[in-house]
Amino acid sequence: MIPVIPPYLSPGDTVAIVATARWIDADTLQEAARIIEARGFRVLTAPHVSTRHFQLAGTDAQRAADLQQAIDDPAVSAILIARGGYGTVRLLDGMDWAGLLKKPRWICGYSDITALHGTLNKMGLASLHSVNALDLTTHDAEAGESLFAVLSGRTRSLTWTCDAAPAKPLPEGPLALLGGNLSVLCSLLGSGDFVPDRDHILFLEDVSEYLYHVDRMLVALRRSGALRRTRAIVCGGFTEMKDNTRAFQFAADNPWGSDAPSMVLALGEALGIPVVTGMPAGHIKTNRAFPLGLPVSLAVAQNQVVLSWQ
């Protein structure tokens, strides 16, 4: 599959902020818009970004209509999701992607937005794993800077220091980078929206899960066949993990016995593929931007990792 790469943005292009999951308040929305406009872009705000329907930014119909409107608007050059949480997967079955296929646009975000990444990458469209609009007001400035740098095509690589060199050789040649939030990927199993039918590198991250849940999800991925063509795994942030211990209000200490990165390393060992740790992406303040669905190359020298793309 030859991926479709949306055009990179130039000053004056329009970025639409759309909420597919939770809402954000009007003041935060205004501040996020100000940060985007300071980079030279126009901002279009979807009607229901600050609408409160319990946890969600409006009903499913309202959120889907907002996303559809942004997809169909030829003036929109990129769509930045307002925030994560939960709810994006509820919109997938009713969407018409024809406008996006006709005029590809970058859809940007992370966490719950993994549901969109999986769907778009399955169709052959590249997308951008990045901070959400809310994070522009709360995360490190470098996290937002990386969004704009990748979105504008100024940056085509990401560098970090891993804990240790991979135990297995890295795959030769560029391979598609797929994945995202582990919990959301598991919610897509069986739906057809996460079907890695090509050799790929898998990116994984998660937040606020019990450690035995992480093991259960990794086992589910493996048993489903989704990892059949995984040639390497890149491990991002696994933050705020919980365990069956007194520290998390259990009556007795009954820990799982392994942290999340160690479980991913064990999975790589079982599959016979390399695992690269420490990627600065996921539910962390330094969440760096990078494309999904594009061929990428991985290189490691003296624990320095370089992920690069075209």
Description of the structure:
This protein is of the alpha/beta class and 310 residues long. The chain has 8 helices and 13 strands. The chain has 2 domains: 138 residues, Murein tetrapeptidase LD-carboxypeptidase, N-terminal domain (Rossmann fold), CATH 3.40.50; 153 residues, Glucose Oxidase, domain 1, CATH 3.50.30.60. The strands form 2 sheets. It has a 7-stranded mixed sheet. The protein has a 6-stranded mixed sheet with strand order 2-1-3-4-5-11, with helices on both faces. The chain is globular and about 50 Å long.
Largest sheet: 7 strands, mixed
Beta strands, count: 13
The name CATH uses for the topology of the largest domain is Glucose Oxidase, domain 1
Structural class: alpha/beta
CA distance, first residue to last residue: 15 Å
Helix content: 25-40%
- Report the principal-axis shape: globular
Low-confidence stretches: none
Overall mean pLDDT stands at 96
CATH architecture of the largest domain: 3-Layer(bba) Sandwich
Radius of gyration: 19 Å
Can you tag this structure with a few keywords?
310 residues, alpha/beta, Rossmann fold, Glucose Oxidase, domain 1, 2 domains, seven-stranded mixed sheet, six-stranded mixed sheet, 13 strands
Fold blueprint:
Blueprint lengths: L13 E5 L7 H13 L3 E4 L14 H13 L3 E6 L16 H5 L3 E4 L4 H9 L4 E3 L11 H11 L5 E5 L13 E7 H7 L11 E8 L3 H14 L5 E10 L20 H12 L3 E2 L13 E3 L2 E7 L2 E6 L1
Parallel strand pairs: 1-2, 1-3, 3-4, 4-5, 7-8, 8-9, 9-10
Antiparallel strand pairs: 5-11, 6-13, 7-12, 12-13
Briefly summarize what is shown.
This protein is an alpha/beta fold and 310 residues long.
